[in-house]
Each structure stands twice: as C-alpha cells, then as structure tokens.
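quick one, 66 residues, struct below
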Amino acid sequence: MSIAKIIEISSESPNSFEDAIVQGIAKASKSIHGIKSAWVKEQHVVVENSKVVLYRVDLKVTFVLD
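---
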C-alpha cells in the first residue's frame, strides 16, 4: 500500500509560466523525493510599466511517503 502527501508551493520566473513550473518542481525535488505529479492551482503575473515582468504559479505537488 502506498500513501501520498500533497503540499502546496509557489514558484516564479521572469520567462514564462512553464519555466516557473519547471523551476518549482526542480527545487522541490532537492528536498522531496518520490514526486509523482503536480497540479497548477493558480497563475499570476506581476506587471510593471504595462509589461509582464514575472510569472508566478501556485502548485499542489503530490509525492509518495516512504
């Protein structure tokens, strides 16, 4: 039997939502092993001078407990 846990993380990137997701999972993988999936809960952008300068995502990350 497997038991999974879900945590919520936030990640950001100046490049894209996709890059924010990839960086968030990469960083989480350094301290959490067994990540099985992630769900994008929300997406936000930071706007300065009428330009998008930062892409931010809130992720729900699922991983299997030992």
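The mean pLDDT is 96.
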